[in-house]
Design a protein that fits this description.
Helices cover about 70% and strands about 0% of the residues. α6 packs antiparallel against α7 and α6 packs across α8.
Length: about 160
C-alpha cells in the first residue's frame, strides 16, 4: 500500500512551479559552487593563466548579472571555498538539485571556455568537464557538441595536450 504522505508529496511537487525563486542563501551557494567549479578548471592543468582567470570572471559576471565589484567578491569567496573542498560532489549536488537544464548547459559551456582560454586543452581539463557533466546529468553527446562549438568559436586554436 502506498502511503498517503507519499502521494501528497508527489502531488505537491508536481504542482510547484519549476522556476520558483530560490532563497538568497541557496542562490549564494549556487554562485559559490559555480565559481569553485570554474576555479577547479583553471587549476586542473596545474597552470593558472591570466586568460583563464579572465574567462572565469566573464562567465561569473554574465551568469549572475553581477557588477565588476560583485564579480571580484564572488571569485574571492569561491577561491576560499574551493581551497577547502575535498570533492566536486559538494558543488555538483547543489547544482544538480537547484539548476535548470539551461543553467547546467551554460556551466558546461563556461567550463570549456576556461579550459580553452589558454589556447591549449589539457587531458585533465577534458576529464574534469566530463566528470562534472556526469554529476549534473548533462549527456556526453551534448557535452561533445558544446565542446565543438566552443572549440571552433572565435579566437580559439586549442590542441589536446596529453600531460
Amino acid at each position: 500500500m502506498v502511503s498517503d504522505v507519499n502521494v501528497w508529496e508527489k502531488i505537491r511537487a508536481a504542482l510547484e512551479p519549476e522556476n520558483a525563486p530560490l532563497s538568497s542563501d541557496v542562490e549564494h551557494q549556487l554562485r559559490l559552487a559555480t565559481g569553485a567549479l570554474l576555479l577547479e578548471m583553471c587549476r586542473a592543468d596545474f597552470k593558472v593563466m591570466p586568460t583563464e582567470r579572465e574567462s572565469i570572471a566573464r562567465s561569473i559576471k554574465t551568469a549572475f548579472s553581477l557588477s565588476p565589484e560583485e564579480t571580484r567578491e564572488l571569485v574571492l569567496a569561491a577561491e576560499t571555498e574551493s581551497a577547502c573542498a575535498v570533492s566536486l560532489q559538494i558543488y555538483t549536488s547543489l547544482i544538480q538539485e537547484h539548476s535548470t537544464r539551461a543553467q547546467k548547459i551554460t556551466l558546461i559551456e563556461d567550463l570549456w571556455r576556461v579550459a580553452y582560454a589558454d589556447g591549449e586543452l589539457h587531458s585533465l581539463e577534458e576529464n574534469l568537464v566530463q566528470r562534472v557533466a556526469a554529476l549534473i546529468d548533462v549527456p556526453p553527446k551534448l557535452v561533445q557538441q558544446i565542446r565543438s562549438r566552443i572549440e571552433n568559436g572565435p579566437h580559439q586554436q586549442p590542441h589536446l595536450s596529453p600531460s
